[in-house]
Amino acid sequence: MALRTLDALQLAGKRVFIRVDFNVPLDEAGKVSDDRRIRAALPTIRRAVEQRAKVILASHLGRPKGKPEDKKKYTLLPVAERLQELLDQEIVFADDCIGDGVKKLVKELKDGQVLLLENLRFHPEEEANDEGFAKELASLADVWVNDAFGTAHRAHASTAGMAKFVKEKAAGYLIQKEVEYLGKALLRPEKPFVAILGGAKVSDKIKVLENLLAKADAVCIGGAMAYTFLKAEGVPVGKSKVEEDKLDLARAILEKAKARGVDFMLPVDHVCGAEATATAKREVVNDRAIPDGLIGLDIGPKTLDRYRQRVLSAKTVFWNGPMGLFEQKPWAEGTFGVARAMAESPAVTVVGGGDSAAAVEEAGLVPKMKHVSTGGGASLEFVEGRVLPGIQVLES
Ligand code: ADP
Ligand code: MG
């Protein structure tokens, strides 16, 4: 798969429309409370500014439903303010993303100036991938750059529909990096390749699991999904979360792993509580089986050590899904332990999934990873082996 990339284009003097992912959380006061996604888009924006393009930025924010109060709740104005600080340059803000007012602002843009359009999803045509709307957006631009990896799994007007109405198109640096690492972890992993999978449900991760079974040397399972696998093997799991209707599927996955010679590792000990609360007593169960009345809430220390050794001796590690209920301190050690092992490992380390990325961020270990994906759902779909519409249209 060859992506058209930003570096191949001459941007000077051109109207460059960059679809970014500025879908950031806002606090009570309406200020940006986590600017990771804005920062992740900076390399592409800076490149366009340095090349003296007329830069037009567009994004969605939240899920506005067309109610009048939504215009205030989901405005991108706070993002414009934060971006202005980060870029250290004036950001022109448009109060819509199409229409005569926007056309006028684009016309007045000088080379190297940056314009941010208002929330694309104020128009339902965006998500409907309406052709007329896509054309309207495209009429603002000579070049379309997609750098919104977090929305690349959606075929919306600005993430895919616009592509056929612009003269030139390219992937931004963020999408390029996501494709390089998620693609590398998936397609041509340096061996040994270890996958660590956790999270809430087996059912969320079936396709990811199946795809990884074809490539990985070892798969280390944690999180609530581990108990469905243990139960499928006939191991008692107490009151732990189990997807009863996925037991057959779990057995099928275990069989497949065996047939392919993948070392499919399940927890050999657990951290349990009588309740899934932050104040419940933390009990380490030094056995595969969990006693009646207890809930498995994290992998145990022996399990962590086994997974850790795997991570340290791997050449590629892909991690998705926390090892326990890490949002509560008593059950966080397994998740942070895996994050630390990855940080210490010389392997190409790739993290995908929204909650997993949040855990790495909380541990302060993002700089120690080779790549932490900015796309939650998009990164999983990518690792499932699906073609993302926002990326497909960038292939040459
Ligand atoms: P990601 O967003 O990284 O793909 P998931 O959404 O699949 O991850 O799973 C994350 C959630 O799984 C977290 O909220 C975490 O608390 C929960 N979780 C993990 N292990 C357990 C467990 N043993 N019991 C309850 N919840 C768990
Ligand atoms: Mg999640």
Automatic annotation (TrEMBL):
- Which organism is the protein's source? Anaeromyxobacter diazotrophicus
Q: Where does ATP bind?
A: 205, 296, 327, 353-356
Q: Which GO terms describe its cellular component?
A: cytosol
Q: Which Pfam families match?
A: PGK (PF00162)
Family, per entry: Belongs to the phosphoglycerate kinase family.
Q: Name one GO biological process term.
A: glycolytic process
Protein name, entry field: Phosphoglycerate kinase
PROSITE patterns named among the record's database cross-references:
PGLYCERATE_KINASE (PS00111)
The alphabetical list of record keywords is: ATP-binding, Cytoplasm, Glycolysis, Kinase, Nucleotide-binding, Transferase
